[in-house]
Amino acid sequence: MSGAPDGYWWAVASLVALISATMLMHESASWVLDLASLWGAPVNIRAYSCDAHSLGLVFGYAITQVCGSRFARLVREGLFWTLFFIAMLVDVLAFYWCLFAPSAVFVVVAVQFVGAAAGAWFFVAISQIAWAADTRLFVTTVVAVVGLTTLIVQGLFSMLEATAPLLVSELLHLGLVIVAALCLVRAMAPRSCFMSAYGEVVFAPIQSRGNPKAAGSMPPDDGEAPSGGGALTVALRRRLPLCTRLFVIVGAYGAVFGFLHVIPLALPLGVVSRVSSFIAGALIALALFALTLRGGKGVDVSLIWNRFYRFVFPVVCVAALLGPLTNDTEFLPALVMQACALYYFDALLAMACSVIARAIDAAPSQVFARAFLIRSIGFLFGNLIGSTVYEHVVLDTAAFSIIGTAVFVLLVAVTFNMNSERYAKTVWGLLPREDPRGRYERAREERCDALAAQCGLTDREAEVLRLLAQNKRPREISDLLVVSVATVRSHVHAIYTKTGVHSSGELVKLVECPQDKS
């Protein structure tokens, strides 16, 4: 495609092929495996396989963080990739052997773990090319990757499962790994964006700004009373880094998706029902993704968060609450909504990683790895809870009602109780790339926040204070805040009274940082 950097689409094609291969092992195990004997007792080998896959994802993402510098060196070495793809081919062959010998429980677990970890590692490695893509190109990339992997795994191979011998699926599965290897060879050509990302381009380390509320340097959030029954919770929230709030949200949604991923196993689903629901959910999600992000024009973190709570939250809640109504319709309405929410969430998360990496001048691979690590930890946790519920609870209408209510309460708590729309504007405290003027403006804003907390200013007064510190006049502030000039003057009078100053000049000196004078 014209306009893409050298080797970009070869890297994307390699990602589609290999992620499809690793996803296929997980999905095929869910379709084929059931009960097996372990030490004379029947066990749900499907659950073991699913848990191993989730744990493998966590391990794969985590190892890229633990060995970050080593990771960056390995991805440039052809020998490493040769061994990597040989190991993937062996893993695929071992997987199909397991399908013929389902009693080999530990082999199934090892195969799923290795495949998922390799897929996570590969995803992080390829994500580095996001540095070379503008937002419009990256939106197209996300749609292509999600759409093609869904069609390959849920479409092509699902139908082969029902209509063709297992050997056909095995050969095509091996073909995916070989295609991924060949595409990566093209993507690693000299001067390609993939090789440049790991060699020529210098990225800043990811840093997190401490929570400015920690020492009382900011006023409380709306609804965060400094005393009373919630004082301990408020104190804890003020001490945590702002990015922790983002991690809690991503992890909580990952846990919900992990839990809901297990529930359909309790209901009989034919191949056509399963395929149609996943493909329909993916198509709806991708159409929604492209439309709500306006084709990549003017996308920033605030816009992504806005789309998150306006679309992901309600769709997930509807999927969970539809549970009691779908026993007689093969779970299709809820399954379509669940697939739509999952695909849309992952697409938004990938887009957010790209935008955040660009904003803070960090290596995209490190941003993607951390975000999807948190998502995978949550998914594993939810998957384990879902497996326990599946084994010990009868999923009747009452159980589905309780599950839907619990999901709703959890998502309301993490979505609307974290002030994330406010913190999205500052990338949740992650330090952006700053020039001297940017550092000056940030220091001035932090000083205004500290003064506002010290003098007990309201949120609106603190906002006016920051504008006054920028030498804005009441008429300009009126236009920016869309309030009357009289209201602005009332706020200014309150600020003067609380801070003990008598003019705008005195106020500017009060918020002036020591280094400003130099």
Offer a quick outline of the entry.
This protein is an all-alpha fold. Helix content is 72%, strand content 2%.
Secondary structure layout:
Layout: H1 8-32, E1 35-38, E2 41-44, H2 45-66, H3 68-74, H4 78-100, H5 105-127, H6 135-163, H7 166-187, H8 193-197, H9 231-239, H10 242-262, H11 271-292, H12 301-321, H13 332-360, H14 364-392, H15 397-416, H16 420-424, H17 436-455, H18 459-469, H19 474-481, H20 485-499, H21 504-511
Antiparallel strand pairs: 1-2
Helix pairs in contact: 1-2, 1-5, 1-6, 1-7, 2-5, 2-14, 4-5, 4-7, 5-14, 6-11, 6-13, 10-14, 10-15, 11-13, 12-13, 12-15, 13-14, 17-18, 18-20, 19-20
How many structural units, i.e. domains? Answer: 3
What is the SS-derived class?
mainly alpha
* H/E series: HEEHHHHHHHHHHHHHHHHHHHH
Number of strands: 2
- Backbone CA Rg: 26 Å
Describe this structure in words.
It is a single chain. The model is unreliable at 212-236 and 514-518 (pLDDT under 50). Helices cover 72% and strands 2% of the residues. It folds into three domains: 1-202, Growth Hormone, Chain: A; 241-433, Growth Hormone, Chain: A (Up-down Bundle); 436-517, Winged helix-like DNA-binding domain superfamily/Winged helix DNA-binding domain (Arc Repressor Mutant, subunit A). The protein is mainly α. It has helices spanning 8-32, 45-66, 68-74, 78-100, 105-127, 135-163, 166-187, 193-197, 231-239, 242-262, 271-292, 301-321, 332-360, 364-392, 397-416, 420-424, 436-455, 459-469, 474-481, 485-499, 504-511; strands at residues 35-38, 41-44. The longest helix is centred in the N-terminal third of the chain and has 29 residues, at 135-163. It has a two-stranded antiparallel sheet. Keywords: DNA-binding, Membrane, Transcription, Transcription regulation, Transmembrane, Transmembrane helix.
